[in-house]
Amino acid sequence: MKTFAYFDSSHEFPEEIIIAAQMNPYKILGKNDFSTELADQYIPQFMCANARSFLNQALEESSKWEGIAIAHGCDATNRQFDIWEQHVQTPFLYYIHNPLRTDRIAQRFFIREIKAMINALESKYRIKITLDQLEKAIQVSNNIKILLQSLSQLRIIKDISNSEYFNVVKYCVQNPKEEIISYLNSILSDWKTRNSFPINKIPIFLTGSDITHALWYELLEKVNLRVVRDDLTIGERYFATLIPTDKDPISNIAKYYLNIPRSSTKHPTNPRINYILKACKSEKIHGVVSQIIKYCETFAYDVPFLKSQLEVIHIPVIHVEREFTENIDQQISTRLEAFVELLEQNR
């Protein structure tokens, strides 16, 4: 089956359309070597390093993909479409607008956008995407999300490392959907037999910029911070809610993508903060780690409000700004170790 790639910043792209088109949706996350050299020819280095990494991968690997779609997420994605159109070699490049709001007007707008993309795919690839195919695609997506929810719930009670969790979710956004169900079932069987949650690990909530490499998760693991809840794209934002099945499939898809855990790039910010607060109250969360990749200002703007709300429920929080690099930042490591000492005192 052919692969169709997409670039979004916080799970905005409706991959069910690609599944219904009988192609494999592949989320562009950059290469494992953190390279941005090719993209740096076209984008200043003070722009989001994640976005530059995605462009770098597209410049190198676009020949492997049948086409590419870019979804409106943050300014870094919104402003780069022209660059991709000019320099990335692909037979099909499409931009889908995702509304920032979630009201009825926004939903009607997004339904029109989804229909427009379906028409564009049908025209380009000479296929027909039926409502029945979309319903089956929704079922596939929901089955994957249900299994990921089951796996995620084990993080608070079993010994499941941060990088293991990250790699499982990353696998689900980059591999053929028909392979994922059996893969997740095998992972679930394994995780259920794991030892109990280690007493030396501190359960935390992780929020902020999307993390595209396991290295940062490994750093948290090294200082004994275990991520048991999050609101990241390669995380709970991808599977926390299921796609509705009560209306026609296009309306259901539109409703789903407007009601997933919100990113800081969407307004207002209250739903995102409420999701974090609810998780901290319901789970045995000892602290919150808020992190942003350098120059990711939208998440930085939310930090004061997030901290003030967490103080109300007496949840300690640390905020750090990280570089896009394969090298461990020892200053951040030292700050995290100090945060661990604070959390241990509060145990």
Give a quick set of tags describing it:
iron-sulfur cluster binding, metal-binding, 4-stranded parallel beta sheet, 49% helix, 347 residues, alpha/beta, FldB/FldC_alpha/beta, globular, iron, iron-sulfur, Rossmann fold
What does this structure look like?
The protein has 347 residues and is of the alpha/beta class. It folds into two domains: 3-131, 3-Layer(aba) Sandwich (Rossmann fold); 132-345, Rossmann fold (3-Layer(aba) Sandwich). The protein has 14 helices and eight strands. It has a four-stranded parallel β-sheet, sandwiched between helices. A four-stranded parallel β-sheet has the order 6-5-7-8, with helices on both faces. Helix 13 (297-312) links the parallel strand 7 (287-293) and strand 8. The longest helix has 23 residues, at 131-153. The N and C termini lie far apart (51 Å). The model has no long low-confidence stretch (mean pLDDT 93).
